[in-house]
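Researcher: I'm comparing several assemblies side by side, and this is the next one on my list. It has 816 residues spread over two chains. Same procedure as the others: predict the full complex and return the structure.
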Amino acid sequence: MRVYLHSRTWFIYFVMVIVILMTFWHPVVLLISLESGLVWWKILKRRLTLGHVLGATALLGFLTVINPIISANGATILFYLNGRAYTAEALVYGFLFASVMVCALLWSVILSEVMTTDRWLCVCGRRFSRTGLVLTMVFRFFPLFSKQWHKIREGQEALGGTPVGWRETFSLTKRELLCMLTWSLEHGFVTADAMLARGYGSAKRTYFNRENYGAASVLVALAVIGAFAAILTAAIGGGMESQIYPYVRIHMDGAKDILGFTAYFLLCHLPMISCKVLREERRMRS
Amino acid sequence: MIQVENLSFTYSGAARPSLCDISLQVAPGEFILLCGPTGCGKSTLLRMLKPELNPAGVRTGRVLYKDREIGADDRLPEVGFVMQMPEQQVVTDRVWHELAFGLENLGVKSDVIRRRSAEIAAYFDLEKSFEKDTNALSGGEKQQLVVASTMIMGCKVLLLDEPTSQLDPIAANRFFLWLEQLRREFGITIVLAEHHLEEIFGEADRVIFMENGRILAQGKPALVAQTLLSGRNAFSAALPTVTRLFYEARSGRDPFVSLREAKAAPDFDTLAAMVRKAETAGAASEVSETARASEAAVTLKNVSFGYDAYSPVVLNKLSLEIPAGACTAIVGGNGSGKSTLLKVIAGLIPEKKCSGGKVKFPEGGRRISFLMQDVTTLFTEETVYEEIVAGVRGRVEAGGDDFVERFLKENGLSVLSEHLKQHPYDLSGGEQQMLGIAKLLLRDPQILLLDEPTKGMDAVAKEQFAKLIKKKTKDGATVVLVTHDLDFAEMCADYAAMLFRGEILSKERADRFFADNVFYTTHKNRALNT
């Protein structure tokens, strides 16, 4: 089934997932975020490498161990380090914080994959048509810049004689930077001329909006907002609560918890119905 | 359509005028080819016809568009302008947005843009790449996209400033064919400034030849060719091969301007026989002495390479011996692995990544300099002089005060001596290549690797450059030349090898190689093979 979703629907979706992930430091919320994040990862055909897993583990380990050194909150003292208490609660806090970070990183990759430049443009385009243009030019320029730098590196290496010692390496890098600067300026002049040649600045710019709201976009947007409202209701009513300091405690509140977590689960997974369209888009871009 | 009356122009700060008293008329639907040596003022003249791009300076005379005088404050979306650099002219990151860009600037509404871009994509066969990232397009595709996104604005006149100078000859020909189609189907008026005249010269309705800011000759292509050839103008080297080749045989009258015209001539066979005889008498197709005497400068054995596990193999069990003290040209289509092969020889791709393949050099013969495709990537200094000296300062200082000038003169690069104080980016494309070569030669390499060195060079520069390569191989250097430019390869190569899908299919003496090939050969051979 091909379900097309409007850029604004995507925008609302990501804002809500990320807001909830960052505000509720609840293990169940984290688990749902991680699970749905990994499903997205698979849908977007990104490879999960050993490097990713090791990186995430290292981040988790580092932040977990380091937090009790910074923060002495918590009632369960494990031992004293240089006269400061090293507590179990602070360990848990560190672990949760690191988990939120890992999930946020995972989701930021998904965000950047789905929210391509044209989606951002569509979200902010009509009102900020010039800003939008600058944005798309920046998006074009970055890959160009890094490609050019790579070429300059290779060109210098190819000339024969790789730099010896830090002094030469430093001087070469400095010159490469200058070279990039000249190149960028030179590039900019031509682009400016090309823009003028195609009528830039001759009238008030419009923005070419290619997207239409379909029934699916509206329904999914409403469902996402509905789920968000349900989570808020559950939270205000005392559900989905957890506490770390001074003791670690997860409040269990049957009905409200079930409502909140189910709503978050649905919220995270619902837009996946559009996975086919996303994959097609990705294929067509390259 | 366009009228230019007594136009003169001097750039602000310049001592000499760039345009002197130019008068010219362009009729609707006409195809005008503007040619002349580098710096003759053709780009300036084109810019004067597009008010948005009028350069700053002092001008006298008038430019009229549809009988109305135009100045720097006018806006003429009907007149499209396409420049050299495909990369830099693309403004946005997606193909559809690039097409829409011009219309957005004119304040056109979304639904109109939608229809117009669909229409133009269908006509220009951009449907498949409509959603693509512009970075994923090749140079030729980018240039076509720029023209398409100019055409979408309803343009009636297309001004093109050396649009193919950064493209390989195959992409360039495709671009010209496509331009021709545009003209035939829409009656677009085209003014094209170009120095690659091989394919396009005979197609123009009128050719205008400029030198030092003045129009020296204009008229039908044959007439201009006649003027240039009979006046022994240096620029006549840029004329199509067939024009130059048959000029003497036709006793200096009515030069052919295209291969089609030549082959249609009733006495073509007799003429071709005459030219062939003259050519074989004059040709000294001897492989240089050192090449025959010595062994290989580089030996590649079973080299295979792919950029990563997911992309196709670029080099496929390639074995090749590069003879020392000779120039070996490696030719082949786009993506056949030519540049990758050079990177393997240069060591930029290490041997251990070549799936067990071996790259061998004779004892102490590993001093390699490699001129990569985009020569501007070599330039890190403020002036041409500093650029030449960079990295070899010790050698230059030891050589005395006028070392650089002597060095340039000895190597036939004296054209650079006039520009020593300029910024490398201010040189013309051909001069930039020369500067790259100078940098390479100062490192005194045993092996010179050149990747498409003639990009952006005009015919005169190419001839000089071919001479330089010949001289270097005579002195014992080994040159490996990767190029699409077969005419250039024939001028300077001793051996030629064809790379096809990552394999070397044939390697033999260059003259035999080009004489035996039917399709993939020089313009001269195409003209003389009956």
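Model: For your comparison table: The first strand of chain A starts at residue 77 and ends at 81.
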